[in-house]
Each structure stands twice: as C-alpha cells, then as structure tokens.
Please model this.
Amino acid sequence: MAGPRKAIELMLCTCEKPYMRVADYGLELDEAIPVADRMHALLEHDYQWRWPDNSHHLANWVDDPSKRAKKSEEDTTTYAERDSRRNFVREFITNEQAQWLRCAVITSRALEYLQACRRQKLILQGLSPSGQDYSFEPRLFYQYIWICLNQGTGTRLWESAPLMFLIPETESDSGDLVVLTAQKLLEVTIRNWEQGMDLGSIFPTLSLDDVLPLPHDAEPQINDQGLNKAISN
Model:
C-alpha cells in the first residue's frame, strides 16, 4: 500500500533540488541522474527492478563495415588504435543511453506509485519546505519520461507535446491512462534498444500501434509488477 510520507517525498522531487526540470530547452544527464537516484532511494524496496541491458544492446549493435575496414594508409598499429577508439566511443554512448533509460524507468515507477496514492485518496499537493507549491500532475511525469528517452531534449524544443493527444485533458482523472501509456512507451523503447537500435533512432520508427495504451473503456491493470513485467518481456 502506498504511504503518504513517501508520496510527499516523491512530490518534492518535482520542486526541490534535485528536481524534475521539464519546462526548458534541454536537460543534462548529470542533472537527471541525481533526480532518478533520489526517487529510486524512495522506491527501491517497493518494486523489483530490472535495468536495460547494455550487453544486449552491444551484442546486437550492427556497425558500418566501411568504417571498420582498414584504410590503405594505415599500418597495423594505427588501425588497431583507431578500432580501439571506435569501440570505446560505442561503449561510452551505450552506457550514456542506458543511464537515460534508467532515469525514464525510475520516473515511470514514481508516476505509477503516485497514481496509486491518488486512487487511495491521499493528498498529493502542498507547500515545499522552500515555499514551492506542488501538486501531482501525471502528464508532467510523462513529459519528463519523454525527455529522458530523447536524451535531454526539453519541452521548449518540441513542436508539439508527444503523444499527449492520446490522453484526454478533459477527464477528471486520466492518471491511469498516463501510467499505461508510459509503460507501453518504455516497453517498446527498451526492447528496440536492446535489439541494437540507437536510442535516438527509435522514435522516428514508432507507430501509434506501438504506443497505444489499453482501450479507453478497459479497466487498467496496474500493480507492483507493472513496469517490471513490461520491460522484462
């Protein structure tokens, strides 16, 4: 059962540093990681965690053969050094993308937890210690997840809010739908990434069928296995 103290601490992640910064041009990874760590510390024992697998991504990643080929002007040593640098860069990028995915996974869990609190009628609004107003807005968490999956591209650079048209603004509580949409988005993204796709190349290939949540009249099935089950398949 969700608890009020933990819910308040999670809500403070939206307004007290380190906090989820959404309304800006960009978000740096070294800013996103402390926020994710803060939320994970609160939720660590509430869920089973399974992180995106770097080794799967690297094993399935297909390099450009032309860039791997030895150039005519290269001797064996020069070629080996260049090939080693290329491997290092590939591993560095993979690790960085895995960190962005981790931030998205943790944020999705926080969204799921707070939505469970809302269903239990817990109060999710108030005043932070520094005097900042806060209230639970599921769409804000969804936007932050999207920022993480796009490696820091902020909302001020978006031409339109991504896939938010799937979530009616007029509903009194569309939080369950936001949770399901985020889970489906993460499921598809992590699966494609572990199959070797670059994180920045995944979104142009997505269709609505890839990210549509349950039908509007279906009963959402959200439980403690939610995201863990989704990303383990």
User: Anything to note?
Assistant: Residues 166 and 212 are 8 Å apart (CA to CA). The first helix runs from residue 4 to 12. The longest strand covers residues 125-127. DSSP finds ten helices and two strands in the chain.
